[in-house]
Amino acid sequence: MEGIVDRTLERRRERDLGITSLFAAFEEEETDPGWGSAKIAIPDSEFDKAQRLAFEKEMLGLYVSDHPLMGYEQALARLTDCSLSDMREEDPTGDRSPVRAVGGVVTDLRRSYTKKGDLMARFILEDLQAAMEVFVFPKTMADCGALIENDAILVVRGRLDTREEEPKIVCMEVSRPVLERGEEDLHVALPLGVLTDSTLAGLKEILRGHPGTSSVLLHVGAKVLRLASEFNVDCRNGLVGELKRLLGPGAVLS
């Protein structure tokens, strides 16, 4: 779009200055007089994943084509005590809830100042199943505020605040881990004709017998289902052979 606008303005400046070319008359006849010959080559390129997801979240309010945490579930789970869903369901005993470490991606970051002029922040921490609002008060903001950015993957240590109808997290500490993405996803074809209780039980046993970092996607008819991270696998050590023996030679899709 920027190229079209720049080219149009350039042509209009040339026209106002009386600059013309041998083919100007023909171009004016063949093109929209409002735009002039503003045809430019459209580059055959795409935003990288991080930028594309940021634009999706900004324009639509949700991630569409992928999720920033996809593939990092196991690595993030090793650094946290529980998921956001688990923390939300906690029933604090006594006056204070225990300190928990939860992980997710930062969205809707908003910074503000107290009456004393101290910086604080609030944001939404989102994982693959849930989202919760996080409050960062001035002391924590002074220590960790530089780590908090939109689209950043964070581990937040804090307490659950249930004084309002919607539970929130009061942040006490923030870290920004360096995560390693899991291996390539495993695509498994599950024909409708073999969908029996015994087959599903066998599939579950095989997957749990090969724990790893690769996500498993089941192709059932026209649908594709991504299994929970507890079923992530290591595709080595005979896993593919076991799946083919259970589901047939075409079980594993390349």
How would you summarize this macromolecular structure in one to three sentences?
This protein is of the alpha+beta class.
Distance between the termini: 38 Å
Q: How can the largest sheet be summarized? A: 5 strands, mixed, barrel
What is the succession of H and E elements? HHHHHEEEHEEEHEEEHE
What's the architecture of the largest domain in CATH terms? Beta Barrel
Residue ranges: pLDDT <50 for 5 or more in a row? none
Number of strands: 10
Major β-sheet strand ordering: 1-2-3-5-4
- Broad CATH class of the largest domain: Mainly Beta
- In round numbers, the mean pLDDT is 82
CATH H-level homologous superfamily name of the largest domain: Nucleic acid-binding proteins
Helix fraction by DSSP (H/I, runs of at least 4): 25-40%
Question: How many helix segments?
Answer: 8
- Cα-based radius of gyration, to the nearest Å: 27 Å
Helix-strand category: alpha+beta
- How many structurally independent domains? 3
Q: Per CATH, what is the topology of the largest domain?
A: OB fold (Dihydrolipoamide Acetyltransferase, E2P)
Portion in strands = 25-35%
